[in-house]
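Lab notebook, page 48
Experiment: co-folding of the full assembly
Goal: obtain a model of how the components sit together before planning crosslinking
Operator: M.T.
Materials (sequences as entered):
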Amino acid sequence: MATVRPETFKEIPHNYERKSIVERLPLMKNLPQPRIRLVEYERSAEREHTMENAAVIVCGGRGMGNKKKFKKLHGLAKLLGGDVGATRPVVYAGWADYNALVGQAGKHIKPKILFSFGISGAIQHTTGLGEADFIVAVNKNPQATMMKMADVAIVSDAGDVLNILLKGLRKRIRE
Ligand SMILES: Cc1cc2nc3c(=O)[nH]c(=O)nc-3n(C[C@H](O)[C@H](O)[C@H](O)COP(=O)(O)OP(=O)(O)OC[C@H]3O[C@@H](n4cnc5c(N)ncnc54)[C@H](O)[C@@H]3O)c2cc1C
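Observation: model returned without errors.
Model output:
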């Protein structure tokens, strides 16, 4: 048996023609009594909004510099209708909550567009990025792994680019 985290892979079209071999095996005797009992089964009407199914994610790393600058990422996420994600050092520094952690020890995301500010791209982080459709990365270091993974890589100060984006978007909304 195998399990995968939600949104790790793109769903492939269902093939109802596929046939599988069904083997009937005899049940072991003296099985222990189950300690779990199904009380009720209720399917939720709507798919709940979670970071795992968000279309836009604005992720920030240590390169954001400090908590105050990191908090500005929420402004961009709000303008774009997205969520904020974070790397482990950011969570450990208390700039973001643990439930914002993206990666091996956190959430696996699959947004249509991912903004990555000041993130190096360590494997423990990128393993949680699933199949983000489009990545915009901002980093001072063009050699950072995250920059190589990006569709658009901006070599600059993360805080500066964030401020420019916020200013531009707010202006567009006012017009
Ligand atoms: C068992 C284990 C599990 C882990 N699980 C996770 C996990 O789930 N998620 C996770 O994220 N990490 C995890 N980690 C940690 C991971 O290995 C990395 O340390 C972490 O992802 C690095 O975070 P970062 O990119 O924010 O920081 P850094 O690696 O320090 O990178 C900061 C980046 O910011 C850039 N930068 C600096 N200043 C600026 C600036 N002013 N403007 C723009 N760019 C700038 C730098 O060039 C650098 O690329 C795990 C580690 C272990 C050992």
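Interpretation: The two ends are 55 Å apart (CA to CA).
Next step: discuss with group before ordering constructs.
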